[in-house]
Amino acid sequence: MKKTEQKAPNVLEMIPAHAVDYEFEEGAVVMLAPKFKNKFLVKHVMHRMKIPFYKIHLDEYGSRTWNLIDGKKTVFEIGKTLKAEYGESVEPVYERLGLFMNMLAQRQFIILTQMGTRMK
Question: Given pLDDT bands bounded at 50, 70 and 90, which one contains residue 27?
Fold first, then answer.
């Protein structure tokens, strides 16, 4: 491997942390994603809005996964817990969990950090 090539990080070895606020409705997690991320719009427009957030409702598995995210457990450890709690109904757990974590990270709902690195 050349020096400029870097191995892509394995999502299962990464540690997720929440990046958006959330609330609970009827036992399920509802993520509160801000409608604007632009600093100017956040400063001058968002506080005037009646509802400055999009509400994103998670299903049972998504809610449980969200509740397991604590900034300390790896994605692999979260998967082990899900597998122990739900059994075969979450299979293939690591593939599904990897896709879910990548989706949350791309939309900036969570921050994924490598083990051994400090979060910003």
Answer: confident
In a domain, 3, yes or no: no
Domain with 87 in it: 11-113
For the beta carbon of residue 65, count every other beta carbon within 10 angstroms: 24
| Per-residue pLDDT at 64 exceeds 80 | yes
Q: How many CA atoms lie within 13 A of 85 on its CB side?
A: 12
| Structural domain total, the chain | 1
Whether 119 is covered by a domain: the verdict is no
* Alpha helices per DSSP H over the chain: 39-44, 60-68, 75-86, 93-106
Cis preceding linkage at 52, omega within 30? no
> In the structure encoding, which two tokens stand for residue 62, read together?
């998504």
**Is 120 contained in some domain?**
no
